[in-house]
Amino acid sequence: MIASRALDLVRPALLALGGSLAIAASAQIQVPMQPVPMTMQSLVVLLVGAAYGWRLGAATVLLYLAEGLMGLPVFAGFRAGPAALAGPTGGFLVGFVPAAALAGWLAAQGWTRGVARSAATFLAGHAVLFACGLAWLGLMIGFDRAIAVGLLPFLPGTAVKTALGVALLSALRGMRRA
User: Fold this and answer.
1) Who has the most CB within 10 Å: 99, 153, 170, 172?
2) pTM for the complete prediction?
3) What are 88-102's pLDDT values in tens digits?
4) Three-state SS for 161?
5) Which CATH topology does 2-177 take?
6) Cα–chain center distance at 150
7) What are the structural domain ranges in the chain?
């Protein structure tokens, strides 16, 4: 009984740590662009949300953000600290939390079963992420410019990451059944 309770506490903590490390690693896979780099983070954030559920998914992203705020070099380009959240990428970083939560909630509602629903889950998560990121970036550089540099160049990558996410979720489901 005690071992079972300990496992109930340790398992989510290990999942959150592993997920935050995956997000940190995905931050370093990037196409350098200004003022916001294109990374693989949104793919991993949405996968974490869909796989972990809305609570643990959001908590995992919050852990990732806390790691960066504490000075661990987990943000894109191995950046860290409060300046990263105050800069042009801050809205996108903060937007990871509701994006992961939405992906987790949609997954719990069955929206990761099937290609079309999985794609809708990823597109909805990306929409939340872009809304947060563009709102912050727009305050910094103007909304027209934010759309031009913070959305339009990212649309092809978003399509690719959505397709990858759908394929990876399908593969994860297949592994669970095996």
Assistant:
1) 99
2) 0.93
3) 999 999 999 999 999
4) helix
5) Arp2/3 complex 21 kDa subunit ARPC3 (1.10.1760)
6) 16
7) 2-177
Tokens 């397709």 correspond to what residue? 163
Cα distances from 32 to residues 13, 40, 60, 77, in angstroms, run 32, 12, 25, 9
Q: What is the pLDDT of residues 122-148, one digit of tens each?
A: 999 999 999 999 999 999 999 999 999
The predicted pLDDT at position 120 comes to 97
Question: What is the identity of the amino acid at 83?
Answer: A
Q: What is the rounded CA–CA span in Å between residue 81 and residue 73?
A: 8
Q: Which amino acid is at 39?
A: T
**Residue 83 CA: distances (Å) to CA of 37, 75, 80, 86, 87:** 16, 11, 8, 5, 6
Asked whether the CA dihedral 98, 99, 103, 104 is positive or negative, the reply is: negative
Q: Indicate the burial class of 57 (C-beta count within 10 angstroms; 0-12, 13-18, 19 or more).
A: buried
The secondary structure of 11-32 as a DSSP string is HHHHHHHHHHHHHHHHHTSEE-
The pLDDT score that the predictor gives to residue 32 is 83
Q: Cis check for the bond before 35: say yes or no (omega within 30 of 0).
A: yes
